[in-house]
């Protein structure tokens, strides 16, 4: 738990006595899962119960314009992210007086990322179309860093007869755990990766008939590596910029969503004193969901990510690494099918299967040498039962 | 500013109400108001508890309230939203005609709000009568019901902004 989150937790405890209103919600989800020919989720191709999500979130209204909100979760996602409990978000939610038709919300503390289509709900099993979201955008190894940050977020919304404008701006940072550091840089990392800041802006528009929604988002984030006294790795930095276009279309019996991104990354140091690498990656997903009726729906999805937009086959990556990084780690293309059954109010069964070609999102963010066992073609599946309140 | 008016209704009776007790009927007449059918042909109208002091609501107000973007009445009291299950015909009609969205969109929006700690989701009820009763009995409540459920209507005015 970050220091800021802890401070806010104490603050929220202290403010309970002043609260006008307290609300609590949560979810419990347990699944079966397996990754075959990749250790992306499970080791040794085993079927596993490592798909557990338990969360509880609360909101304490201090008055009409100020609240304290937070969520604690326990997660077990196999190799996808750290197993254990954490505070996903904990912030003061402050509604400012409406100005020129714009509603403004300030989130101060560990805020939740609201900039991408599913970033605000990626932690909540019953809101996700699939247990494993499209990795081009929702890279699981970055889950805790991308879900929220310690800092400030402002949301501006304007409702008009023509439609809804939404602008989100945020500035913050996240702590990176030892496990995440090793996940990003490899087991040889003895020091700590740190995020200096993440700065994001997004703009969304939805017309009055609510049938579609389009948005643009931008991200700028700097990381650095501080080596331990005895370390194979060196001091270094990584600068990431991301631009993304998001779109959704809603029909009575089907919906379509897509996000395409371009990612600019500059790495210096870490692997060698004069190491410098600049890459432009790109990718995105298209997802189609058909609703048979109120209780059954089916999903088809295609997701693709390329580490280097000018090296889609990965040949240059393999050559540059002297053959130590196979070419298929330069790309990752995933075809998915999913099925959802709403068994009863607040109960859902969801299953999915992914066929994957390549491993670009199974390697470390900074160092491609952190490859985990992945074959050129692999697959994964999961089946989840979930309850929420 | 262009103003569009809609017939609004104060209810004096609820047809089909199980309680024959005249006192309950009188209470219902005093407590329940229909405030904003969104189109002249709308078959589902918005209802509020009688302690709600706002005499009119705009289309934008209603959309904001039912999508969780407005959670307090102008007098500072909390808005309590009641809806029917996703598969109820009145809910589908209300979502489509009034909110201009499909039930699954509304549910997703509320999930996003609820599980981001941004608000309390609507209370879901399994019958129109239960919804009407809940709106009657809950201060600050808002919901909807089919027009044919009521009689003794009185028209008011609401603007479209």
Automatic annotation (TrEMBL), chain A:
Which residues constitute the signal peptide according to the record? 1-19
Origin, by domain of life?
Bacteria
Provide the alphabetized UniProt keywords.
Answer: Signal
UniProt protein name: Uncharacterized protein
